[in-house]
Design brief:
The chain has 238 residues and is α/β, with parallel strands linked by helices. It folds into two domains: 11-116, Cobalt-precorrin-4 Transmethylase, domain 1 (3-Layer(aba) Sandwich); 122-235, Tetrapyrrole methylase, C-terminal domain (Methyltransferase, Cobalt-precorrin-4 Transmethylase, Domain 2, 2-Layer Sandwich), CATH 3.30.950. Helix content is 36%, strand content 19%. The protein has helices spanning 26-34, 43-52, 68-80, 101-109, 122-130, 149-158, 172-181, 207-217, 231-235; strands spanning 11-13, 37-40, 59-62, 85-87, 114-116, 137-141, 162-167, 188-193, 201-206, 224-228. The chain has a five-stranded parallel β-sheet with strand order 3-2-4-1-5, with helices on both faces. A five-stranded mixed β-sheet has the order 6-7-10-8-9. Strand 8 and strand 9 form a beta hairpin. The longest helix has 13 residues, at 68-80. The chain is elongated and about 55 Å long. The termini are far apart. The model has no long low-confidence stretch (mean pLDDT 95). The structure holds S-adenosylmethionine. S-adenosylmethionine is lined by residues 18-19, 89, 91-93, 96-98, 121-123, 166, 192, 194-197, 223-225.
Length: 238
């Protein structure tokens, strides 16, 4: 992938793989090979990723949660100069539990163009594998570590639609214990681990049965997504 295309003057939101390097679209590769600047979380990770696809990294601009506001102005400035910019995360879709929305907001408020590309995302990949209803769902992101955690769990369990939660592997047992303590031991859930990677697995069970599995294993390794069945519909056996 070496040839550069003439790209329009826009901010391209480019999803990258969540594990399997083949999960990148032809369009994403073309855009990454052709933009003037790639804004990314970690310049070393993204440089490595681009070289994996034989793309010579263009100018890389680091964007993380502590500098996103300032970078938003920098990106808008580049676009005003007529440049094309891609925004990528370390994994998956930018702006989903990753930096991005402030940049998109600044660019759109400045009357500049945003072009979102569809692609890999852990939440949707886990949702569709869960076997839980997909006609309506909520994405709740990461639970807070301490303050607000109880309220998060209460809200999660009150949802009638299917909910998707990101959690660190070393906190998943705690989250299941909190769901059990809140009276949701029977609730249907699916824990998706290491999506698109060699040791991918999907544990579809009740909260209590999943808790037993997690306790037996001692530790859960890798990245995880928890998909939780809705309150009414779980009760109705859906
Ligand atoms: N922007 C990413 C996306 O589109 O999915 C999410 C980034 S967020 C910082 C990282 C979280 O996503 C992980 O803690 C985990 O919950 C989930 N995740 C990312 N990759 C995953 C994978 N391969 N398998 C399971 N969960 C994954």
């Amino acid at each position: 992938m070496k040839s550069r295309l003439e790209l329009e003057n826009a901010l391209f939101l480019v999803p990258v793989p969540i594990g399997n390097r083949e999960d990148i679209s032809l369009r994403a590769l073309k855009v990454l090979a052709s933009v003037d600047v790639v804004a990314c979380e970690d310049t070393r990770n993204t440089g490595r990723l681009l070289r994996m696809y034989s793309i010579q990294p263009p100018k890389l601009l680091s964007v993380h949660e502590h500098n996103e506001e300032g970078r938003a102005d920098d990106v808008a400035g580049l676009l005003r100069e007529g440049k094309s910019v891609a925004l990528v995360s370390d994994a998956g879709t930018p702006a989903i539990s990753d930096p991005g929305f402030r940049i998109v907001r600044a660019v759109t408020e400045a009357g500049l163009k945003v072009v979102p590309l569809p692609g890999p995302n852990a939440a949707l990949t886990a949702l569709v594998a869960s076997g839980l209803p997909t006609d309506r769902f909520s994405f709740l992101g990461f639970p807070p570590h301490k303050k607000g955690r109880a309220a998060f769990v209460k809200n999660l369990l009150a949802h009638d639609d299917t909910c998707v939660v990101y959690e660190a592997p070393h906190r998943i047992k705690q989250l299941l214990q909190e769901m059990h303590a809140a009276g949701a031991g029977e609730r249907r859930v699916c824990l998706s681990r290491e999506l698109t990677k060699k040791f991918e697995e999907h544990l579809r069970a009740s909260v209590d049965d999943l808790l037993a599995i997690v306790e037996e294993r001692g530790e859960i390794k890798g990245e995880v997504v928890l998909v939780v069945g809705g309150a009414q519909r779980s009760a109705a056996g859906d």
